[in-house]
Amino acid sequence: MSLLFANYDTSVKPGCQQGPIVVTVGLAVRQLIDLEEPKQILYLNTWMRLQWDDCQLRWNSSDYGNISTLTLPYDRVWTPDITLYDSTDGEVGYLKEYRVSVTSEGKVSYNYPYLISATCQVDVTYFPFDTQRCPLQFGSWAYSGLQLDVTNRSQAGDISSFIANSEFHLDSIPLERHELYYACCPEPYPDVTFYVIVKRKPTFYVINLLFPCILITSVAALGFILPPDAGEKIGLEITVLLALAVFQLLLSEAMPPSSETFPMIGVYFACSMVLVMLSTILTVLVLNVHHTEHKRLPKLVRVIFLDKLARVVCYKKDASVQPQEDEVPFNRSLSNGLAHSYDGKGHKEKGINRPHLPPSRSDNSKAHNESSPLVIPSEETSSSELLPLLNVLQEHLDLMKQAEERKDQKQEHEHQKGEWKKLAIVLDRLFLMLFVLMSFITSLAVLVSLTHQ
Hints:
5-stranded antiparallel beta sheet, Neurotrans-gated_channel_TM, Neuro-gated_channel_TM_sf, 453 residues, 6-stranded mixed beta sheet, cell membrane, receptor
């Protein structure tokens, strides 16, 4: 050992060979700890594998008892400053606690565990069916490519010892070697970049986020089925809108605050909120139509909605009972008969028979005393004696006519009110069909986009 390290300086790169020192870099991923989307940081438990030739660490194994391999402390040999460029912890991966293996031909191997904390730009467009591609760029920080040539040890990263993650599936770790020129220096700086490709397991988010959102949006359709007299249509729509807002808040907390990429599921939540908001507005419109009473339904609206669209939405219009024109009420005919029998002075009109009137008080007394039948006054009876009785009858007939007019007005009012209620039912069913159609199209478009990325 004393002879091997007699003139060895660990702080200086070995310079006994022509050209740069070739350092091979390998990476084995042991565990994916976490991918923190809001901060866009990837946490990995990895095994780093570095290898290079040190011409000053060569010996003849036969001269030293056939010792061909030495395991030395980290600080006894020179090690290249291979650094993860996009690390967030600011520490070099290898530590002094781990030892270096040196062979008699001067090959140095340095294998050590490395907890990687690196930046990873997360694309959440297809969340939760997304695939992330996180680059890990390894290279020398101090030596250029003319002094230290960094190259890959294998064609891809090693995932044979990977421990399965509950949220992500590690698909593969392809790698690429680059030679980059920076503005500070004219020399090239080679690096080896490993691309960690992980796919999210969507089951958890589908069951706990996407599926409840679809159910809540479907509940909004019940607002069009609920009768307007129930008084809970607006409350139901507002409750659904608030529930969607809560799910939107939960989604925003799990996503990075970026405007470059926005998840499709967030677009679906936004579209669902717009649909529920429109359904709330349409529900208010239906309630206004339902409670309209003192206006006559326009003929054009009646033809379009109650005659044509009613059949489209499968609404069977009830046959309205209209009074027959040839039916004349009894009190109206009687009123007309009395009104035309006598004029204002009690004289008989020409061509019209006078109605039979009861006898006077004296005649009644005489008739009762003699037990004679009812005597109808003759035409010679004075009209002045019948005029008060005719006036009383006329007043009663006027009251009956007013009552009949009020009844007709009430029937007309009920008829108008019924037409507005029928219009509200037709609009409810029409809006229900449109809401279901738009919800189906939105859900289908988002799901197809998510699953066929």
